[in-house]
From TrEMBL:
It comes from Eruca vesicaria subsp. sativa. One of its GO terms (molecular function) is quinone binding. It holds the Pfam family VKOR. It is found in: Membrane. The lineage of its organism: Eukaryota, Viridiplantae, Streptophyta, Embryophyta, Tracheophyta. This is Vitamin K epoxide reductase domain-containing protein.
């Protein structure tokens, strides 16, 4: 019985064709090789008798994209960081849409310098709104991928690459915004913006962490394309934006006293006396509008009774250090209340101050009777 001889990496093509005899005389039949094709299986080892296996194809070479392997614990980090980013950008969105000022950071400049600038809009859309939507997408994707079930029939591979594309876009945009903050908005401080940038970079690094060496060439091309698109889009949007002079830039602010225009109610006076008696302190800065608004809640007479600590009594300019009495207790923003060992940041309603300080109902009733 004839047997196939194993041959490596080969394919033979042959056939036979009978030649017509050249004369009527008897002659041996002749054959020549034709070009008909007969594929012959080649293998590196001899197959078993009577068994032929089909040629195999490598599945790795036919795949157009590689799967980024991210374990479930990483998806939990994605969800946590994305959720923090949503809270951060939700607060900035509220400030932007309502025109409110953020809690004053140490250093003089506020997020209002940034939020009210031309750079807080991208083609007319508030930047915090875009950030909130992007963080929401990352959070939803990572949560679904962690459970292994994506809606609308989206495959897990496509979901992973969508997550990778989103974090790459966010990191590219954050790098561009940091450049804008250090050049066009020089001197302005925006703690919330820096937090958002940190979260974006962290999410991007988490995405890259589990990318295999052989996948790098594929994802690098995607990164470069997305980064170029982001930079080009933001540059086009900001082409007419004007640089903003920050309130805390290179200008020098000599100390000045603020005038309180409202008059105090008996209730506010009684509360101010109570706060002073228990050692409650209000830390502020003369240039901080929120500090002035807090004093306006008490009124002229009551504000004078407060135990107020000015953190920049000698004025402010770039490089000025905060007053030691403020730095010793770790003041990070203005105004800051310290009542019975508890810290309250920002403007606080009188009712909340009364509750926090233990301002009794009898004292409040007595104050109301004096009205």
């Amino acid at each position: 019985m004839a047997r196939f001889i194993p041959v490596s990496s080969c394919q033979l093509r042959f056939g036979f064709r009978e030649l017509s005899p050249s004369s009527s005389t008897l002659s041996p039949r002749r054959f020549e090789v034709s070009h008909r094709r007969f594929p012959i299986k080649c293998s590196s080892s001899e197959p078993e008798d009577g068994v032929e296996t089909a040629p195999s194809l490598s599945s790795s070479s036919s795949s157009s994209t590689s799967e980024v392997s991210i374990n479930s614990s990483t998806y939990k980090w994605f969800t946590v960081l994305g959720g923090i980013g949503m809270l951060d950008t939700a607060y900035l969105t509220y400030l932007k849409l309502t025109g409110s000022d953020a809690f004053c950071p140490v250093g003089g400049g506020t997020c209002g310098d940034v939020l009210n600038s031309d750079y807080a809009l991208v083609f007319g859309v508030p930047l915090p709104v875009i950030g909130f939507a992007t963080y929401g997408l990352v959070t939803a994707l990572s949560a679904q991928l962690g459970e292994g079930d994506l809606p609308f029939g989206v495959s897990k591979t496509n979901g992973r690459f969508a997550l990778f594309a989103a974090t790459t876009t966010m990191a590219s945009a954050s790098a561009y915004f940091l450049y804008i903050l250090s050049t066009k908005l020089s001197g302005s401080s925006c703690l919330y913006c820096l937090v958002s940038a940190f979260l974006s970079f962290s999410l991007f690094i988490l995405t890259l962490k589990d990318v295999k060496l052989q996948e790098i060439q594929q994802v690098v091309g995607l990164q470069i394309c997305l980064a170029l698109i982001v930079v080009a889009s933001l540059t086009a949007s900001y082409s007419t934006a004007q640089p903003v002079l920050s309130r805390s830039g290179d200008i020098e602010l000599p100390y000045y006293s603020t005038e309180i225009t409202t008059s105090s109610s008996p209730y506010a006076i009684a509360l101010a006396k109570h706060l002073n008696s228990i050692g409650a302190k209000m830390y502020g800065a003369f240039w901080c509008s929120h500090c002035l608004e807090q004093k306006e809640m008490f009124g002229r007479e009551a504000a004078k009774l407060l135990n107020y600590v000015e953190c920049f009594p000698e004025g402010y300019k770039k490089g000025t250090k905060i007053f030691k009495a403020c730095s010793d207790v770790g003041i990070e923003g203005f105004p800051t209340w310290m009542i019975n060992g508890q810290v309250l940041s920002g403007e606080v309603e009188l009712a909340e101050l009364a509750e926090m300080s233990g301002f009794s109902l009898d004292q409040a009733t007595e104050a109301k009777q004096l009205q």
